[in-house]
Amino acid sequence: MSDIVIAGVMRAGAFSxxxxxNDAAIFNATAEQLRKRGCEVxxxxxxxxxxxxxTEPIILNxxxxxxxxxxxxxxxxxxxxxxxxxxxxENCTRERMTRILIGNGxxxxxxxxxxxxxxxxxxxxxxxxxxxxxxxxxxxAQHREDVTYCRNIDEAQETLQxxxxxxxxxxxxxxxxxxxxxxxxxxxxxxxxxWFYPFDEGHSKYGYEAINGKSQGLEFDPKRLKAICAxxxxxxDIKIYGGDCIIDDQxxxxxxxxxxxxxxxxxxxxxxxxxxxxxxxxxxxxKDL
Length: 289
Description:
Elements: E1 5-9, H1 20-36, E2 40-44, H2 46-50, E3 58-61, H3 66-77, E4 81-83, H4 86-91, H5 94-103, E5 111-115, H6 121-127, E6 132-136, E7 147-150, H7 153-165, E8 170-175, E9 180-187, E10 193-196, H8 198-201, H9 209-212, H10 222-236, E11 240-247, E12 253-260, H11 268-288
Helix pairs in contact: 1-11
């Protein structure tokens, strides 16, 4: 019997929009890599987690349900090892993420955090923001409409009102940045880091990649991107991560989204062993405490 017994909790389908298969695939590939390294991995659903069926001291998870996150935080406080941390997952909800990244000096678009029943046109005019992105601030995106591109401040006000009618109370408004859209994936403590141009590769969740369009191949420093992502992961307390950034015509890098354990879809086979190695390194630290 293995000395390392891990509970693996898969992501509920509602939080894998257009990526249910990809999220399951990277999770299963990572579990298999851990088993090859001598670990016992018992796989659960978020529903089983909610029913109290997860009793292992180590929990590897892709959870996004609010009740699951709070339960993971409780288990973490009680002394279990939780990867990604329930606190880190909560930090990746939009308003928290925006406050944390800006507060830690991570390059990020100028943003407003607002109530959805506010009149925001004066604030947008004052900030000189025209085209922008409005994103639900309270939780992870579940629907395409939870992230909306607005071409002008009139559209922004209308979109915010739609959020209000949908029962979403808080929103983040990000200035739209012009440049190359780059998607990235990484694992804290491991050399692995992968980036690519999603529009060029036809990789999309909601089709938003078309806003920035085909990449221009603007020059930037990939080592700088990896360093920024490492700083963001540290600030947010996330070990397995991915996200998106914009490269402007001066080579400046701005994170526009940062996610707890995304699908790693274009690089799954290469990433899974490194995710497993990262998990084992965290387990060793946990056992040595």
